[in-house]
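Z., the sequence and structure:
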Amino acid sequence: MPSLDDIVAAAAGEERDAFRRAMAEDLETARRSRGGRGFLPAERPADLARTLGRDRRERRLRRLAG
């Protein structure tokens, strides 16, 4: 994966564009591969708080019921 330094150091034109496209593709691939255990689907802090809040409430209810 090219770094930002590679893009900045590249001469303007097709080489720089190629580095940018490669970096964008790598970032998109990394974004899609995230998920599974330990990752929460949240794009904003409010989404994260909402998701964590539900999880905490469910665990609390299970503790009280058990």
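The mean pLDDT is 77. The chain is about 70% helix and 0% strand.

Let me know what you think.
H.
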